[in-house]
Amino acid sequence: MPILDALRPVTGLRVLVTAGASGIGAAVARAFHETGARVHVCDIDRAALDRFNAASPGITASVADAAVSDDVERVFHDVQGALGGLDVLVNNAGIAGPTGPIETIDAAAWERTIAVNLNSQYYFARRAIGLLGASSHASLIAMSSVAGRLGYGFRTPYASSKWAIVGLMKSLAIELGPRGIRVNAILPGTVEGDRMSGVIAARAQVAGVGVDAMRDEYLRKISLRRMVSAEDVAAMALFLCSPAARSVTGQAISVDGNVEYL
């Protein structure tokens, strides 16, 4: 196969993206759709889904809390009806979680962060495996974070969940490789957007500094001295589902401009 053809995802892939109505999830969903994939997204935010559907006709959707197993079952019922099977699962659902010293983080905030960021990965992966096993182009992408390879003071629930995602991915790659299912994790860095702005504002408050000063501090930690875009992350997802990546599995791949420390 010519190398340029190998870099393009197979046309007609059936793709499920969790938390796909905005941010990275929406960018990933649109990128796959533009390559000719049939895409289904789910999201907890009905209003965001309505806006996404209006802007992206042809992509089907379900309202669901990715941390609730019954909701996940309903998503897969919808996937069967809309796509008739599955080639790619992009496990993208996640929240920022609380910011603060460990002694100030209450149990409910900790548990919700773990439920959304980690438990959702388990719920969707376990349900998707039967469908992916019937595909000749099966790929599972777990969305982790640069906080899944570095310590992240005052963001312990988030960092803990993102490290756990890498462990889950590494284990599933071993478990599912003999069945032809590739499993990889993408570790986005500081992604420009509303969510990151909120994280920076919360971190600035904890540190007692201005928001602009905290933003500059984040940029100084990145070798390229700039944030990445959601489209940068989507491009990596496309690569991981292309023939060029047919031997890539079990990998935690950073898309972060090289964040040196957090």
Task: Provide an overview of this structure.
This protein has 262 residues and is α/β, with parallel strands linked by helices. The protein contains 9 helices and 7 strands, in the order H-E-H-E-H-E-H-E-H-E-H-E-H-H-H-E. The mean pLDDT is 96. Keywords: Oxidoreductase. Pfam families: adh_short_C2.
Question: Which keywords apply here?
Answer:
262 residues; alpha/beta; Rossmann fold; 2 domains; 7-stranded parallel sheet; 7 strands; 13% strand; globular
State mean pLDDT (0 to 100 scale). Answer: 96
Unreliable runs: none
What's the number of structural domains? 2
Question: How many H/I helices?
Answer: 9
What's the CATH first level of the largest domain?
A: Alpha Beta
Q: Report on the biggest sheet.
A: 7 strands, parallel
Shape: globular
Quote the beta fraction: 5-15%
CATH architecture of the largest domain: 3-Layer(aba) Sandwich
Give the total of beta strands: 7
At the fold tier of CATH, the topology name of the largest domain is Rossmann fold
Protein name: 3-oxoacyl-[acyl-carrier-protein] reductase
Family: Belongs to the short-chain dehydrogenases/reductases (SDR) family.
InterPro entries: NAD(P)-bd_dom_sf (IPR036291), Sc_DH/Rdtase_CS (IPR020904), SDR_fam (IPR002347)
Organism: Rhodoferax koreensis
Task: Explain briefly what this protein structure is.
The protein has about 260 residues and is of the alpha/beta class. It has helices at about 5, 25-35, 45-55, 70-85, 105-130, 155-175, 195-205, 210-220, 230-240; strands at about 15-20, 40-45, 60-65, 90, 140-145, 180-190, 250-255.
